[in-house]
Amino acid sequence: MASPRPYSSHLLVLSLLLLVAFSQVAEARGSGKLRPSDCKPKCTYRCSATSHKKPCMFFCQKCCAKCLCVPPGTYGNKQVCPCYNSWKTKEGGPKCP
Fold this sequence. Notes:
Elements: H1 5-29, H2 39-46, H3 53-67, H4 82-86
Helix pairs in contact: 2-3
């Protein structure tokens, strides 16, 4: 009769691989990753390349407070923060810079 140990070790390895994969997916999404106190420095960098700093900072901080996420870089990459990316104005344009 075969010992059940080989199956349990395979199950353990598979479980660990799944745990690592899910943690990387959660990290990539960035949702809920920031604390509200992290918003201002993240938005300062996000808005550093625009000539419209005041409105950019206002909306970025508003979006960050709601989504707890700011996309990396000074432009684009919004797919990293689904909440930030999907928040729209009344006219249907993007609310978050």
